[in-house]
Design goal:
Blueprint (H helix, E strand, L loop, with lengths): L14 E11 L5 E8 L2 H13 L18 E9 L3
Antiparallel strand pairs: 1-2, 1-3
Length: about 80
């Protein structure tokens, strides 16, 4: 995610930004229905943009049946530095 994050946005302030990202997995393992909520609205939108553009897919055959849920939550911390 770090490699695709746009750190050049002038609205970002130098600090650590914490967000919770809620998402679902499609039947083919693609990350969908991404919603980030955190300390900075602009950073949350960028997290959503980056995750929705990833070509990464989860190998759902490795997930046990009792682990399949409708949505997942993942904490994300972004460090904005060197302004």
């Amino acid at each position: 995610m770090r490699d695709n994050f746009d750190f050049t946005n002038q609205d970002y302030k130098e600090r650590v930004v914490n967000s919770n990202v809620r998402f679902s997995l499609s039947e083919n393992g693609k990350i969908t229905k991404i919603h980030a909520n955190g300390d900075c609205k602009n950073v949350s939108k960028e997290i959503e943009h980056v995750l929705s553009g990833l070509l990464y897919k989860v190998d759902i055959t490795q997930i046990k049946d009792n682990m399949i849920v409708s949505s997942y939550v993942m904490p994300v911390s972004i460090t904005i530095a060197n302004r």
